[in-house]
């Protein structure tokens, strides 16, 4: 209907924005009412998160309305911003300067250009293989062996999370043909929905998961997972996030099918996304604690981009790979082959009485 | 021409430096000031100048080394765009004092950006300040001396490198100070240096 969006994805996007705006309004209201027994910092941080997600959704919507390339460029920019924050917070030595140049300008651009071209076999290895080898070699060539392994590890980790992992979100748009299970005819058919739906499903579930985790930690959280890393994140919060994500995922797929998954598939995907998103924000907390940046301020003012997208970075690759592994096909022929294999399974099933 | 290049250059400088500007001890004002800052990168003057609000930027001139900024047409053009006051470091003599030149150039309108360490510093500690800022203050005691702490510029473009890496940086602007009556040169320079060091912890 509009660029990459069809009716369902447009409705999902708009209702998501409406929910965020409503929650933002509630945050504002709570801030004004000083009598409420809620920590002011919590409310402020919640409102800021809602605001940030709204900005992300609006920009993402604009990108999706124009096309794949614009969306890929938008994600490149987010990667760029996140990575510069990561490197800013990570101590490097003056001799790493030229390595940093490749790290921030060359590899991310290569990654996103290859992705825009749909070259999966290249963009899936360029950073984890060649990037890893290159960083080590480039630091060695800079003639400074001091803390060599620490420096290489820091830079590789930043590149992997901020660029490689995040780039799997827009990569969903570059998938070839996808198949979906037609439960009425009992066979695989080509999925005709908009691929933007896959990306939106990921973003919405990450958002829901983060939000419920945040609220549940502060209301029902009793057993803190790792108090040295984060004093709020609790097992109750994690479980609530997983359950709520699964329910919301199920509801989205039931009433507003935007993905090629079946109902149970959508729920399983939501669970995977939620677990990975929570792991991502936990990891980011550990990095910040290690660097001693618990408080706001300093070089990266307030909470940065990195903080907000860590959960998306962790969830994107596995979501992409599961979708690609189970549902991507090259052509109609491959769908037919899948159906024939299915027939064989059915025949064996009915012959043995296993399937009736 | 400059109407186009100034916003473009300012935009590039801001994007590349990811700079946050924080006024912790003073407010933006067009009164005559001397912003003095620690110096670790060639980009210091450009980024600090670009980060100032537009009206203040128009009235502020960075003091820069002539030998660096006249080399090549690009540098010369940039120094022209940001209205730099170029000082010949090799020809500082009594009758050709840069202080007199600065006072003459700023008149009763312009503010200055100076780096009292003299040249870019590669150590983590700031060097001792050169005396220029003391004599400037002695001759023009009405100028507000405003300390500025530039954080992380040396990682964006360290000494000896020619390609900047766009990391983030933070510019902290502190409380104005003046030369006290009867304050000796050394005490004053030490006090000015400490004002910048204090800003690190904000």
Top keywords for this entry?
heterodimer; A: 356 residues; mainly alpha; three-stranded antiparallel sheet; 13 helices; 72% helix; B: 202 residues; alpha/beta; Glycerol-3-phosphate (1)-acyltransferase; seven-stranded mixed sheet; 9 helices; 18% strand; globular
Provide an overview of this structure.
The complex is a heterodimer of chains A (356) and B (202). Chain A is mainly alpha-helical and 356 residues long. Chain A is built from 13 helices and 3 strands; from the N terminus they run ααααααααββααααβα. Chain A has a domain at 71-174. A 3-stranded antiparallel β-sheet of chain A has the order 2-1-3. In chain A, a hairpin with a 4-residue loop joins strand 1 (177-182) and strand 2. With 202 residues, chain B is of the alpha/beta class. Chain B has a single domain (2-199), classed as Glycerol-3-phosphate (1)-acyltransferase (3-Layer(aba) Sandwich). Chain B has helices spanning 2-17, 43-51, 54-58, 66-69, 73-81, 98-106, 132-139, 153-156, 185-199, and strands at 19-23, 33-37, 60-65, 85-87, 111-114, 144-151, 169-173. In chain B, helix 1 packs across helix 2. The longest helix of chain B is centred in the N-terminal third of the chain and has 16 residues, at 2-17. Chain A binds chain B through residues 80, 84-85, 87-88, 92, 94, 97-98, 100-101, 104-105, 297-301, and chain B through 18, 20, 22, 122, 151-152, 154-155, 158, 161, 163, 165-170, 202.
Structural class determined from secondary elements of chain A: mainly alpha
Radius of gyration of chain A: 22 Å
Mean pLDDT of chain B: 87
Let me know the CATH homologous superfamily of chain B: Glycerol-3-phosphate (1)-acyltransferase
> How confident overall, as mean pLDDT of chain A?
89
Q: Work out the oligomeric state of the chains in this entry.
A: heterodimer
Helices, strands, pairings?
The complex is a heterodimer of chains A (356) and B (202).
Chain A: H1 7-32, H2 40-66, H3 68-89, H4 97-116, H5 120-123, H6 126-141, H7 148-165, H8 168-171, E1 177-182, E2 187-190, H9 196-219, H10 235-255, H11 263-291, H12 305-327, E3 328-329, H13 332-352
Antiparallel strand pairs in A: 1-2, 1-3
Helix pairs in contact in A: 1-2, 1-9, 2-3, 3-4, 3-7, 3-12, 4-6, 4-7, 6-7, 7-12, 9-10, 9-11, 9-12, 10-11, 11-12
Chain B: H1 2-17, E1 19-23, E2 33-37, H2 43-51, H3 54-58, E3 60-65, H4 66-69, H5 73-81, E4 85-87, H6 98-106, E5 111-114, H7 132-139, E6 144-151, H8 153-156, E7 169-173, H9 185-199
Helix pairs in contact in B: 1-2, 6-7
């Amino acid at each position: 209907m509009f660029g990459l969006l069809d009716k369902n994805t447009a409705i999902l996007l708009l209702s998501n924005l409406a929910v965020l705006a409503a929650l933002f309004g509630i945050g504002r209201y709570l801030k004004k009412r000083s009598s409420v027994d809620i920590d002011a910092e919590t409310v402020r941080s919640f409102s800021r998160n809602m605001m940030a997600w709204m900005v992300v959704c609006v920009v993402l919507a604009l990108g999706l309305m124009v096309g794949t390339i614009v969306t890929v460029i938008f994600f490149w920019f987010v990667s760029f911003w996140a990575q510069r924050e990561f490197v800013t917070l990570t101590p490097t030595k003056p001799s790493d300067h030229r390595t940093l140049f490749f790290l921030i300008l060359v590899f991310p651009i290569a990654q996103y250009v290859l992705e825009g071209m749909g070259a999966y076999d290249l963009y899936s290895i360029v950073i984890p293989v060649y990037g890893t080898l290159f960083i080590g070699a480039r630091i060695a060539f800079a003639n400074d062996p001091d803390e060599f392994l620490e420096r290489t590890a820091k830079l590789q980790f930043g590149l992997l999370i901020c660029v490689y992992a995040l780039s799997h979100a827009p990569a969903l748009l570059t998938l070839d043909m996808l198949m979906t299970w037609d439960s009425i005819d009992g066979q695989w058919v080509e999925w005709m929905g908009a691929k933007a739906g896959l990306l939106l499903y990921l973003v919405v579930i990450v958002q829901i998961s983060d939000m419920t985790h945040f609220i549940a930690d502060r209301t029902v959280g009793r057993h803190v997972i790792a108090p040295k890393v984060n004093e709020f994140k609790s097992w109750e919060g994690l479980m609530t996030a997983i359950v709520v994500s699964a329910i919301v995922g199920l509801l989205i797929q039931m009433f507003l099918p935007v993905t090629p998954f079946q109902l149970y598939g959508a729920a399983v995907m939501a669970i995977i996304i939620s677990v990975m998103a929570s792991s991502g924000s936990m990891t980011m907390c550990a990095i910040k604690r290690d660097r001693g940046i618990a408080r706001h301020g300093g070089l990266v003012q307030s909470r940065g981009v990195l903080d907000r997208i860590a959960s998306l970075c962790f969830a994107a690759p596995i979501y992409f790979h599961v979708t690609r592994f189970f549902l991507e096909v090259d052509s109609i022929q491959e769908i037919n082959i899948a159906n024939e294999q299915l027939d064989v399974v059915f025949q064996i099933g009915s012959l043995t009485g296993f399937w009736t | 021409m400059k109407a186009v290049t100034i916003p473009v250059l300012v935009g590039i400088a801001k994007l590349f430096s990811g700079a946050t500007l924080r006024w912790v001890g003073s407010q933006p004002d067009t009164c005559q000031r001397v912003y003095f800052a620690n110096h670790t990168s060639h980009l210091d003057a450009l980024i600090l100048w670009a980060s100032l609000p537009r009206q203040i930027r128009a009235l502020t001139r960075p003091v820069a080394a002539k030998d660096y900024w006249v080399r090549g047409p690009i540098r010369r053009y940039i120094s022209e765009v940001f209205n730099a006051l170029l000082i010949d470091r090799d020809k500082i003599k009594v009758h050709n004092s840069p202080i007199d030149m600065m006072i003459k150039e700023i008149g009763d309108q312009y503010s200055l950006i100076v780096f009292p360490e003299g040249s870019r510093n590669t150590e983590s500690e700031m060097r001792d300040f050169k005396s220029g800022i003391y004599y400037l203050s002695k001759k023009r005691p009405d100028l507000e001396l405003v300390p500025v702490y530039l954080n992380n510029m040396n990682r964006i473009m360290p000494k000896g490198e020619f390609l900047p890496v766009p990391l983030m940086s933070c510019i902290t602007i502190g409380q104005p100070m003046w030369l006290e009556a009867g304050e000796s040169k050394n005490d004053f320079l030490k006090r000015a240096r400490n004002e910048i060091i204090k800003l690190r912890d904000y």
